[in-house]
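Re-run with default settings, no changes from the original entry. Doing this only to confirm the output is reproducible before filing.
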Amino acid sequence: KDYVKALRLRKDLFSEFLNYITINVSEFFRNPEQWKVLESDIIPCLLDRFGNLRVWSAACSTGEEPYSLVMLLNRFLPLEEIRVLATDIDEFALEKAMKGEYQQKSLENLPQGFREKYFEKISDTAYRIREEVKSCVTFKRHNLLRDSFPKNFNLVLCRNVLIYFTEEAKERIYRNLNHTLEKDGVLFVGNTEQILMSGRYGFRSFKTFFYAKEKDLKKSN
């Protein structure tokens, strides 16, 4: 009881607690086959539909996902035209993401040539993402269960996080993600997170693990 009381009163203690209970396992181009679909089918379709893209990496962990997005989008757009919003509840993870330093193991799935183009080596086993890539990403703290959701996005990645939520929480988040996306915008989920009966949330299956917004739903509170 004393610890719960302290968590409510002390922001530093609560942040430390979140750092312990959140699972910050990530890597660049995690599940590479899905990223190939994103490159070959999803991004070209979205660019045709919307022109430039508003992109959100929700629950971005330590930054590998939003930086992967920037590198992939750079195959279609110059870096100065790429903007990615990246959010997470864990402030420690966000600090690491903004620092942009990673061990070699997390770079194993990078497409050929990406390590040389987008990273600088800082030790025998570590790399730093280049500043021109970092400048494309805005990192912010965001709680998927409590905070309001941003609007008017064309592509949202919310991957490998909802598996830890209750069914009730998932439903509320899917409805809020519907509100976040413009019509025909796409939600990209993790490889264990296929949405059953996606039409309930205003989505239609576009490709495996990709869902296009079909209609607007009333936003959840």
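The mean pLDDT is 92. The radius of gyration is 18 Å.
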